[in-house]
């Protein structure tokens, strides 16, 4: 059986138009920074912009996973290999977004208790994957052929399964606002 290879959203190539708009944006930023901050300030600001935008874009373009004898996830860096004997469970995480949108991501659970989402095996409104469910089924079939039934253990639910990152962000924001409002009253 051949290896299965999935690329992340980077498989959607940036068009020349998008690149041109980004270049114009950096040029406008450079001109404004030169006028306000001088040459040194402009270099620092444009350099920071390139780094802060370049690293996520590089990760986005390199993200992929390969399913075969071993399991490999890539992003920034050299990636990580997970032998099948270390993978205890594979499932789909569903995250509800704004306006009723839903994002789906295949994730693995390792023997160490870690959870890893698989780049390339994701489906959302921005980057829809028409073959998402078929690809997920192919990965699960490969995993089932490569592991013993006793080694497949569904993980117990943890607190992070009940709270999405958006819910945690809202709770932290409310806590911070309450602290800022009530803090001075409690001190004095």
Structure notes:
The chain has 188 residues and is α+β, with helices and mostly antiparallel strands. 47% of the residues lie in helices and 24% in strands. It has 4 helices and 7 strands, in the order E-H-E-E-E-E-E-E-H-H-H. Strands 1-2-3-4 form a 4-stranded antiparallel beta sheet, covered by helices on one side. A 3-stranded antiparallel beta sheet has the order 5-6-7, covered by helices on one side. Strand 5 and strand 6 (102-110) form a beta hairpin. The longest helix is centred in the first third of the chain and has 47 residues, at 16-62. The N and C termini lie far apart (71 Å). The mean pLDDT is 81.
Rg (C-alpha, Å): 22 Å
Number of helices: 4
How many beta-strand segments?
A: 7
Distance between the termini: 71 Å
Q: Work out the helicity level.
A: 40-55%
| Physical arrangement of strands within the biggest beta sheet | 1-2-3-4
Give the overall average pLDDT: 81
H-E string: EHEEEEEEHHH
Form type: extended
Beta content: 15-25%
